[in-house]
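Help wanted!
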Amino acid sequence: MLKINSVRLWQSLMELAQVGATAKGGVRRLTLTDIDRQGRDLFVRWCGEAGMSTEVDRIGNIFARRAGTDAQALPVAVGSHLDSQPSGGKFDGAYGVLAGLEIVRSLNDAGVRTRAPIEVAAWTNEEGSRFVPTLMGSGVFAGVFPLEKILDEKDVDGISVREALASTGYAGQAEPHRLGAYFEAHIEQGPVLEETRTTIGVVLGALGQRWFDVAITGQDSHAGPTPMQTRKDALLAASRLVLEVNRIATTFPDYARGTVGFMQVKPNSRNVVPGEVRMTVDLRNARDVTLSAMVEELKRIIAHVEKETRTEIALNEVVYFPPSEFAPDLVDSVREGAKKFGYSQRDIVSGAAHDAVYMARIAPTAMVFVPCEGGISHNEIENARAEDIVAGCNVLLHAVLERAGIDTG
Amino acid sequence: MLKINSVRLWQSLMELAQVGATAKGGVRRLTLTDIDRQGRDLFVRWCGEAGMSTEVDRIGNIFARRAGTDAQALPVAVGSHLDSQPSGGKFDGAYGVLAGLEIVRSLNDAGVRTRAPIEVAAWTNEEGSRFVPTLMGSGVFAGVFPLEKILDEKDVDGISVREALASTGYAGQAEPHRLGAYFEAHIEQGPVLEETRTTIGVVLGALGQRWFDVAITGQDSHAGPTPMQTRKDALLAASRLVLEVNRIATTFPDYARGTVGFMQVKPNSRNVVPGEVRMTVDLRNARDVTLSAMVEELKRIIAHVEKETRTEIALNEVVYFPPSEFAPDLVDSVREGAKKFGYSQRDIVSGAAHDAVYMARIAPTAMVFVPCEGGISHNEIENARAEDIVAGCNVLLHAVLERAGIDTG
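Answered by r_m:
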């Protein structure tokens, strides 16, 4: 049975991790910086050495192609991103790109030809740390974001995406093209696989997200002289909402999640009843109808809490990201791949967004998750076991082959 | 019936408010600054003009004395403080000091002699804005704080109390002396009198206070990939505590109050489950035994919330200030005074600490509250109606006279 080269995959990951390596063992490879350029150059060189032809589109996405035997077949793409968080890890993104490269290398070693071409994609600026939005390259490719507008986005130093693309030499000319399928391997960035001792996460889709800013206005007053009954305590109202967001997320079905991650209290003084709170609400769900029901429930609660606490609560939606369901037949290929190797597997839904989420809008898409240590990501201590990294790539290899078709002629 | 001079009292208040006046109509007269020195000088000059002799003790408290006819009688003191918050108002403190002065002036006008001497006291650094602790001067006078330690306290610029006293010329030599009684008039700094359309608050005592720092340790994790069931959400735990503090304060008797005024969330990012929260708890009650019961209930709840949220919660007491009960006969004098003038009155408990709280430890003490606009204090917009200010001073005049005794000889 065809397998990838474990040692080569791991060594390539470690070699790429040297580009922008941090003292604590992590990676700082912000998109379209010179460090990112070095990482891209290394990837492009490896692709060339693997006999692939490379093209770059106008937002800097790199597509390295291994030709298929059927000139009419749409490419089966495998990819992810090479950029990192400011204090990121070795695996987030890099794994998915190098897993694609390793599949091609392994097919080369085995002398296997596929009917459809295989493409390895490296999407520009997935992280959104330097330029917003996140998922920039895949979003432009999928037609979610208008290219010209995105090229004008600036980082904190006033450098535009257009300028950064030019200075790194990755302002390409390729036009968007159709894909026959898209696969992405990624560390889970959550605790489920590790806690359940599962090697392969078969990703059914990604949770939809609705993000809100909440502004609560009460009246600040002295903690001593102000009786409880006359207070307009904005923090009391905020705390009620935190509990309700948690209640909603723990009682609604379909992988519901709810988080208040940010809270700012004013005047934030020990003996003053808070008059103002700003906070965020992040609601997620695998089904859009359930996600909407969660929002409606939140609104109902807010009206109630306003009365109860004599405060005013303004709710402002800032992000809406619909749930994404992956292609059932590709998801099955992932399941079958894991079964072939006897890897433990479980269905999982991605809580975070990935480039695959935008790809799912234009092509049949699936993802493979592998465990990461403590579920920790976006951190220099991000870590994963080599055997899991290898397992995910083996599964991907067979899923890709099933889709691309082995040319036995 | 003897009455104070309304116009003179108001004009003196307005004149003193020019010393350190802010653009928005407030006062910035931080303790032992040159502005405070100017305010003190003005007060001392007025006292001299009213025929009083003045002495200053080693912490800078000023005592202006109008002699009584009985050389053995302990003085009846009336006072408050001349320092203000950084953005303070015209009435907080200044009212109590100038009410004492106005009583003396009015007795002079009427040619009334008292058996006991009358003293007007201006306590150093009540606010605690420049030097900690608050209630510094009255605390030293009452033997709560050791003088030498307090003299070494420094402001943010490294200037000690000792140096500030010397530079303003208010480092006196007077030793603490005994008081026969102590009265203090003050704006309420709360909403009760205004909301109930009451002119005179007969203050029964001051709430005890127990202040806590709370540190909650959970585990930060990604809002997307982390299922609700495995989270250790420090903000969820904090919000539970906010609600419980409110429940305790609204269900316990004896003027219970409970406030979470300060909260800091880490990492405080929209899509990260908070791993750490620092917050404060301020519990107040008129009875020490009830205050202790509130603390016990809080501790019981904390143990419960720790389990429920899988977090660790550290509770650290930083201030304990026992409840203070004023002298019933002096409180009655205040009641009687209000009755004489036909002013509306109600019993009230001071939620905040005042110099009177430390005086109550060494002498029979009472306070008179008058309404302030919107219950707002420690703010440049602090305001009070002249008729209420005058009423409070009239009540005080008669309470003082009852205690000092009119010499009809």
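OP: Thanks! One thing I noticed: The mean pLDDT of chain B is 96.
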